[in-house]
Amino acid sequence: MSATILDGNAIASEIKSRIRATVSERVAAGGRKPGLAMVLVGQDPASELYVKLKQRDCEEVGFKSVVVRLPVETPQPRVVSVLDELNDDPTIDGILVQLPLPTHIDSNEVIERVAPDKDVDGLHPYNMGRLAARKPLLRSCTPKGVMTLLRHTGVELRGLDATIIGASNDVGRPMTLELLLAGCTVTTAHKFTRNTRGHVERADIVISATGKPGLVKGSWIREGSIVIDVGITRQPDGRLLGDIEFDEAVKRAAWITPVPGGVGPMTRASMLENALFASEVLHA
Ligand code: NAD
Questions:
Q1: Which among 190, 220, 244 is the best mutation to test ligand 1's pocket, defined by most ligand atoms within 8 Å of the CB?
Q2: What CA–CA distance (Å, rounded) separates 173 from 188?
Q3: Is 187 in the pocket of ligand 1 (CB under 6 A)?
Q4: Catalytic residue among 98, 118, 119, 170
Q5: pLDDT digit string, tens, across residues 91-139
Q6: Which helix (H) or strand (E) holds 188?
Q7: Which residues on adjacent β-strands are paired with residue 233?
C-alpha cells in the first residue's frame, strides 16, 4: 500500500481562488478590500522572505497589504505604538508581527498588544481561550490548515485516536484543541514524554511538530493512518526536512503530507481565510 499524498499546494491554491472571487465580488459591489499589515523588526533574511511571500499572497487574492519595517534597535514602546496605530486603522483587518523579534523585545507583550479581532495569526490568548472554550473566532493558522487537510481526506474524524508530537503555543497546543473539538481522543507528546513511539503506534492520526528530522520512525506508523508532518528543518545543503521518515511512512499510511508542499502552504492560506473572516464578520 502507498499513501495518498495530501497536496498542500493544490488545496491552498483552491482556497486562494475562492478568496479572490469573494474579494473581487465585494469590490465590484463598492466594498473595500480586506487589509493586512505586516510588522517586521530588523532584517532577518528568513523573516524578509516570509513577508515577501505573504505580500505576494495578498496581491494574488486582492487584499490591500502594508509592511511596516522597523530597524532592529527599535525600542519596545515604539513597536507597541505602531501596533496601537494599526489597531485603530479601520482599513486594516489583520496584523501580523513577524517572529522572531529581536531579543530586547518581549514577544508575549507584543502578541498580546495586537487587538484580538485583528489577530489573524490566532496566537493571542483571547483567541486561544475561545478555541479552548469551543467558541473559536480567529484560529491559529497552522492547526487550522491541518484541519483543512484532515477534512480533505473525507475520513470521519469523530472518535479517532490522534497523537500530536510537540506542545508549542503556535502548533501543538492549539492543534490539540482543534482535534478535541473535532471529536478525536487526543494525546499530546512532548520532550518529557516517556513513550512517544507507543503513542504513535496506536494512533489513527499522527501530527508531528518538533523540528527534529527523523524523530518519528516510519516503522512506528500504523497501517492505514493519516500522517501530517508540520516540521520544517533546513539542512546545510538547503533541503527542507520534516520530522517523519517519509519513505517508510508513505508505505504504511493511508494519507500523508510531503515536506515541503504539505502543511506550509496551508498555514499561509489559513491566515488569508482568517483575514477575510475578520473583514467580513468582525469588522462588517
Ligand atoms: P517549538 O520548538 O516551539 O516546539 C517544539 C515542540 O517539540 C516542543 O513542544 C517540544 O517539547 C517538542 N519536542 C522536542 N523534542 C521532542 C522529542 N524528542 N519528543 C517529543 N517531543 C519533542 O517549535 P514549533 O514552533 O512548534 O515548530 C515545530 C516545527 O514545526 C518546526 O520545525 C517549525 O519550523 C515547524 N513549523 C512549521 C509550520 C508550517 O507552516 N509548516 C508552522 C509552524 C512551525
A1: 190
A2: 8
A3: no
A4: 98
A5: 999 999 999 999 999 999 999 999 999 999 999 999 999 999 999 999 9
A6: strand 185-189
A7: 241
- β-pairing, 240-241 with 233-234? antiparallel
CA 208–ligand 1 middle distance (angstroms): 8
**Residue 230 CB less than 6 A away from ligand 1:** yes
55 catalytic per annotation:
no
The pLDDT profile of the chain, 284 residues, written as one tens digit per residue, is 699 999 999 999 999 999 999 999 999 999 999 999 999 999 999 999 999 999 999 999 999 999 999 999 999 999 999 999 999 999 999 999 999 999 999 999 999 999 999 999 999 999 999 999 999 999 999 999 999 999 999 999 999 999 999 999 999 999 999 999 999 999 999 999 999 999 999 999 999 999 999 999 999 999 999 999 999 999 999 999 999 999 999 999 999 999 999 999 999 999 999 999 999 999 98
What does the alpha-carbon distance between residue 216 and residue 199 come to, in Å, rounded to a whole number? 11
DSSP state of 219: G
**What does the DSSP assignment read for 16-33?**
HHHHHHHHHHHHHTT-PP
Measured between alpha carbons, how far apart are the two ends of the chain, in Å?
Answer: 49
Phi, psi for residue 91 in degrees, rounded to 5: -90, -5
CA-CA distance, 223 to 252, in Å (whole number)?
5
Predicted confidence (pLDDT) per residue in 157-178, tens digit: 999 999 999 999 999 999 999 9
Nearest CA to ligand 1 atom 22: 191
Question: Does the C-beta of 9 come closer than 6 Å to ligand 1?
Answer: no
